[in-house]
């Protein structure tokens, strides 16, 4: 079956003289995609000036900055050159080099939470150059000093050029995991929410153990700045120097976390196993807590390795060991393990077993007042609702969402607001599916009133989804003007967003707005909306956006046909077929088939019967063996049109 791929765009910026390493960057990213990223549903996309074609309409640097703002992460490289000013415009007067401006733009994106992180690498310089550095190298050295003083960005001075490859692989692994953790923590109407692994533990120093105390401090600093290779060496040294049980177990736990950050998952699990064997029978609360965390992390990592049965077994072990514990730290790990077990059962389509786990979790912790326990309860209710929906128990699903909203609707903590917003979206969608459009609209309005001003990405997405679905519900009530107004509101709020989930909602809103305009017989206005969508997202590589672009092209073609612009209609179908004809995604295959069908009809209307038959032949050759019902129906129509040589069939 086709699998969903998450695209992560990484920008590379550098002054001249580092072309070989820019090529190395592309090569390593491609290699990492093949070996590490694609197998877990991730694809890194390298972005740099090479992919940006300057236009006379804007300065080249502005185009590069626009591309940079669409990226998730950024890497900057320096050696002995600083570069030249971007141009002489007032907007660039603050910067003495294009790469400096790019670094500043990345910082703005990080501050606005549209970019995750940036990293800077300094390649080694020949010692002789340092004696007489010159203006270019002086600027590079001053920039490195600025980073050292500011500590607002991860940077590293490489000991040799050969170190770049391993450093790049390490930072890609870090960013892949960070991206996955953000995705797994967000609620949506289609994805259950789970818990990621615990983070590092900073322990108190050992009295008289100077060497260990120094190592612990250095480890924390290295891990915090993203130097995971250095942190691993320090964690290993700390584990050998530690003397007390609590410092030993903490050092081992931190070593495991750091191996995970380096994407060395099997080694990470082996460290957790060592920790559990050595301290699994301990009775001291602090040691029991670390054992519980190691079990939780081991389970989470097994899940990332697609070892679902082993993952569930580890959660069962954790629950059996600590399920009766009264300490908050242990109760928290038990609740997280139960939530993750339910999540995994849901991913395995074992919805009834999943629900049973959530019911157990809610029974154990539903009355808890501690924030760390309220969050698992909220997630359990959210996921239980989704599981009930998968079993077509719609009324029970809605009742669970109501329970979640009643329990946590007044909460202000982000960890609780997110499942509440997700539950409200899901409830509204379900009411709409039950033809209760007015009730659905009321839920969406309540959600927007509560969270419409939120700045957190995990809350902005439900707001966008609520507006999108409100528009659909208004359309179902044939309130087209109100429907269009809602889509305009969504576009005004999120049209400039760079987050993939929000870009998708904006694209869908534009498409739906075009459809609504078409339903009002405003074909020219509809075409203008489709054109806007195509211009904005036509170069997108994300499957969800490609689908919306293809739909916009198809719909524009239909609208052109309604305006009796048959030749322009056919040209648009040809463009769609050329762009997406080789696609393997079911949604795109169906749109290609529809484009071929409609092209045949349009040719028939232009009295080009032979050409129409040739198009139907092409359609049948491409999709005649397909098993999807939608494709079978289109092929069947094409066969009828071909055999009867009729050209008056309505467009799809």
Any chance you could write out the topology, listing elements then pairs?
Layout: E1 6-13, H1 19-37, E2 42-47, H2 60-69, E3 73-78, H3 98-111, E4 117-122, H4 127-131, H5 134-150, E5 154-157, H6 163-185, H7 210-224, H8 228-241, H9 245-261, H10 265-279, H11 285-304, H12 308-322, H13 328-347, H14 351-365, H15 371-390, H16 394-408, H17 414-433, H18 437-451, H19 457-476, H20 480-494, H21 500-519, H22 523-537, H23 543-562, H24 566-580, H25 586-605, H26 609-623, H27 629-644
Parallel strand pairs: 1-2, 1-3, 3-4, 4-5
Any descriptors?
globular
Radius of gyration: 28 Å
Number of strands: 5
Residue windows where pLDDT falls under 50 for at least 5 positions: 53-58, 182-190
Strand order, largest beta sheet: 2-1-3-4-5
Question: What is the helix tally?
Answer: 27
Proportion of residues in extended strands: under 5%
Terminal CA distance reads 27 Å
What composes the largest sheet? 5 strands, parallel
Whole-number average pLDDT?
Answer: 88
In short:
By secondary structure, this protein is mainly alpha-helical. 68% of the residues lie in helices and 5% in strands.
Describe what this molecule looks like in 3D.
By secondary structure, the protein is mainly α. It is built from 27 helices and five strands. A five-stranded parallel sheet has the order 2-1-3-4-5, with helices on both faces. Strand 1, helix 1 and strand 2 form a beta-alpha-beta unit. Helix 14 runs antiparallel to helix 15, helix 21 packs parallel to helix 23 and helix 26 runs antiparallel to helix 27. It is globular. About 2% of the residues have low confidence.
């Amino acid at each position: 079956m086709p699998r969903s791929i998450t695209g992560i765009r990484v920008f590379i910026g550098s002054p001249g003289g580092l072309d070989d390493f820019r090529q190395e960057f592309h090569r390593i990213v491609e290699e990492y995609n093949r070996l590490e990223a694609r197998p877990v549903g991730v694809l890194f996309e390298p972005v740099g000036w090479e992919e940006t074609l300057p236009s006379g309409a804007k300065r080249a640097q502005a185009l590069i900055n626009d591309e940079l703002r669409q990226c998730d992460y950024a890497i900057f490289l320096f050696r002995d050159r600083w570069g030249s000013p971007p141009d002489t415009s007032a907007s660039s007067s603050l910067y003495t080099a294009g790469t400096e401006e790019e670094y500043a733009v990345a910082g703005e994106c990080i501050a606005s939470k549209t970019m995750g992180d940036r990293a800077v690498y300094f390649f080694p310089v020949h010692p002789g150059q340092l004696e007489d550095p010159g203006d270019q190298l002086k600027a590079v050295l001053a920039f490195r000093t600025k980073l050292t003083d500011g500590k607002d960005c991860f940077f590293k001075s490489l000991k040799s050029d050969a170190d770049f490859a391993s450093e790049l692989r390490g930072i890609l692994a870090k960013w892949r995991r960070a991206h996955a953790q953000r995705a797994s923590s967000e609620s949506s109407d289609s994805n259950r929410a789970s818990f990621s692994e615990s983070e590092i533990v900073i322990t108190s120093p050992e009295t008289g153990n100077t060497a260990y105390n120094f190592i612990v401090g250095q480890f924390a600093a290295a891990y915090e700045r993203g130097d995971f290779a250095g942190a691993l060496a320090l964690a290993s040294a700390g584990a050998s120097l530690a003397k007390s049980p609590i410092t030993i177990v903490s050092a081992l736990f931190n070593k495991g976390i750091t191996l995970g950050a380096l994407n060395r998952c099997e080694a990470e699990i082996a460290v957790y196993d060592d920790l559990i064997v050595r301290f699994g029978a301990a009775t001291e609360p602090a040691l029991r807590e670390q054992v519980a965390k190691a079990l939780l992390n081991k389970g989470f990592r097994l899940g990332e390795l697609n070892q679902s049965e082993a993952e569930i077994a580890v959660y069962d072990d954790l629950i059996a060991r600590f399920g009766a514990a009264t300490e908050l730290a242990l109760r928290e790990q038990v609740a997280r393990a139960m939530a993750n077990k339910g999540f995994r059962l849901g991913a395995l389509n074992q919805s009834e077993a999943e629900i049973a786990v959530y019911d157990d979790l809610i029974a154990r912790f539903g009355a808890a007042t501690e924030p760390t326990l309220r969050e698992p309860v909220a997630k359990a209710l959210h996921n239980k609702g989704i599981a009930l929906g998968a079993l077509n128990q719609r009324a029970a699903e809605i009742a669970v969402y109501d329970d979640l909203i009643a329990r946590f609707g007044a909460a202000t903590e982000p960890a609780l607001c997110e499942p509440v917003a997700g539950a409200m979206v899901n409830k509204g969608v379900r009411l709409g599916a039950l033809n209760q459009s007015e009730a659905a609209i009321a839920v969406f309005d309540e959600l927007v009133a509560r969270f419409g001003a939120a700045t957190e990405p995990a809350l902005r997405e439900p707001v966008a989804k609520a507006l999108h679905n409100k528009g659909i519900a208004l359309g179902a009530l044939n309130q087209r003007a109100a429907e269009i107004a809602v889509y305009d509101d969504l576009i005004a709020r999120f049209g400039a967003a760079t987050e993939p989930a929000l870009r998708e909602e904006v694209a869908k809103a534009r498409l739906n707005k075009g459809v609504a305009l078409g339903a009002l017989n405003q074909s020219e206005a509809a075409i203008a909306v489709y054109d806007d969508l195509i211009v904005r997202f036509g170069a997108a590589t994300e499957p969800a956006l490609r689908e919306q672009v293809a739909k916009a092209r198809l719909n524009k073609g239909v609208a052109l046909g309604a305006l009796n612009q048959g030749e322009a209609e056919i040209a648009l179908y040809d463009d769609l077929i050329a762009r997406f004809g080789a696609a393997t995604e079911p949604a795109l295959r169906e749109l290609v088939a529809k484009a071929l069908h409609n092209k045949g009809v349009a040719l028939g209307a232009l009295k080009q019967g032979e050409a129409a038959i040739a198009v139907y032949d092409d359609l049948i050759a491409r999709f005649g063996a397909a098993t999807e019902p939608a494709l079978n129906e289109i092929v069947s129509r094409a066969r009828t049109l071909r055999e009867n040589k009729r050209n008056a069939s309505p467009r799809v």
